[in-house]
Amino acid sequence: MATNETNYTVTNCTKEFVMKSNKSHANQCGELKEGDDWGIFPKDGSGDSHPDFPEDADVDLKDVDKILLISEDLKNIGNTFFKSQNWEMAIKKYTKVLRYVEGSRAAAEDADGAKLQPVALSCVLNIGACKLKMSDWQGAVDSCLEALEIDPSNTKALYQTE
């Protein structure tokens, strides 16, 4: 039963017609060409040249030294946002560092993953400081508790939770 000239129900279509129509439809679905922008790099004017998610990056997550360089770069961008009192963007960059650190920890050996602990701790504490500046008291406490999970004797985290 045809519903109109362009839309047919599957019951009136041959298998060959359905396959051809699906194939032609798939050919027009927005295929990216070589050199096209895939939209995985941030366009926030910060100079951040790393994809938002480490699985989109062209980097081996087991290469802890490379992840450390990326993490330090992103943390510095977050620090620039912090200094300009753009708390939301600072949090985004610090959170992005944590994604890279977690991705690398999951892929790397335990001994190598330990190299990432200081940058992770710093970013968690910085997120807590941003949340304090935003008067998000519970968010600040949560960040400091997360920092204490990384380093139970961290005085900065202990101070910010009080």
UniProtKB/TrEMBL annotation:
Transmembrane segments: none
Catalysed transformations (reactions): [protein]-peptidylproline (omega=180) = [protein]-peptidylproline (omega=0)
InterPro entries, alphabetized: FKBP4/5/8-like, TPR-like_helical_dom_sf, TPR_rpt
TPR repeat positions: 121-154
UniProt-listed Enzyme Commission number(s): 5.2.1.8
Coiled coil stretches, renumbered: none
GO MF term list: peptidyl-prolyl cis-trans isomerase activity
PROSITE patterns recorded: TPR
Keyword terms: Chaperone, Isomerase, Rotamase, TPR repeat
UniProt-recorded name of the protein: peptidylprolyl isomerase
